[in-house]
Amino acid sequence: MIKKAQQMIVFNALTKQQSFTKAAQLLDISRTQVSKQIQQLEERLGVQLVQRTTRSFALTEEGQRFAVHCENIASEINDAESELLEVSDTMQGLLRVGIAQSFARHHIAPFISEFHEKYPQLDLELSLFDHRVDLIAEQLDLWIGMTDSPPEGFVARHLADCHFVLAASPDYLARNGVPYTPEDLSDHNCITYYSRERKDNVWSFTKATTDDQENTNVQLKVKGNFRVDSADAILDATLTGNGVGYLATYLLEKEFSEGKLVRLLPDWTLTQHMPLYAVYPRYKFLPKKVHAFIEFVRHHIGEPVYWDNVLR
């Protein structure tokens, strides 16, 4: 099939240029190659397409009919490339993006109108979920997700590291007391993230020492009466006084400054972090619409990410 198309393109160039030499120059091949391609085409079809002598060139009746089809094929190829380049250059068409649900709600959805103002002819289709995704099966162009093990066979571009903080509401602390060490959490109702892929019921802490000794590291299994597979639901339950929340900092805005939450164990660092990646299929040339959305996300989250200001 490829050889057939190649021969038809050469024949179309010959009929347009009315010269083997000029056809060769147009296609950037040798005159001998043009002649060979036409000869092979005629042999394959069993029909003489060109009458030629050293000084004259003319299409046979069969060659004239065949030339119409070859012109159509060449036009289709040129139109397909032009349409693709036009869409790519003007950012038209559909972009399908999967995004971690809570992250999208806080840091993507509020700014979608800004993206559309910049690319008004680009349609955006967002799928929000927290599970590990199969980009090919779900027909996604891009996945913005949090994972410590990006899927193999895809490009995974690191965007940021999401950190965590321990917090509880003033009401909960008034009823249950304040934990001052990680070990104190054994006496508290701890709200945990729990899904088919992650069970975050083991919390890790580290504390820097004042001398040259190694840092103090603590890892403990916590328990509580509420497990959920939504980061936003953990924040909501923490705000309403259900227990102690191990909260991603990207969820927080003014909860500490407005007194809605109290940061716990401020001398300890929570060692869990969750990398944020832009994951997409391997391309020889990355589609401009995919690149544009990645840069849109990077612009809004900043470097370093702005939401970690709640820790300062």
TrEMBL record:
It holds the Pfam family HTH_1. Keywords: DNA-binding, Transcription, Transcription regulation. The lineage of its organism: Bacteria, Pseudomonadati, Pseudomonadota, Gammaproteobacteria, Vibrionales. InterPro entries: LysR-type_TF_proteobact-type (IPR058163), LysR_HTH_N (IPR000847), LysR_subst-bd (IPR005119), WH-like_DNA-bd_sf (IPR036388), WH_DNA-bd_sf (IPR036390). This is LysR family transcriptional regulator. SUPFAM superfamilies: Periplasmic binding protein-like II (SSF53850), Winged helix' DNA-binding domain (SSF46785). Belongs to the LysR transcriptional regulatory family. One of its GO terms (molecular function) is DNA-binding transcription factor activity. PANTHER family: HTH-TYPE TRANSCRIPTIONAL REGULATOR, TRANSCRIPTIONAL REGULATOR LYSR FAMILY. It comes from the Bacteria. One of its GO terms (biological process) is DNA-templated transcription. Residues 1-60 form the HTH lysR-type domain.
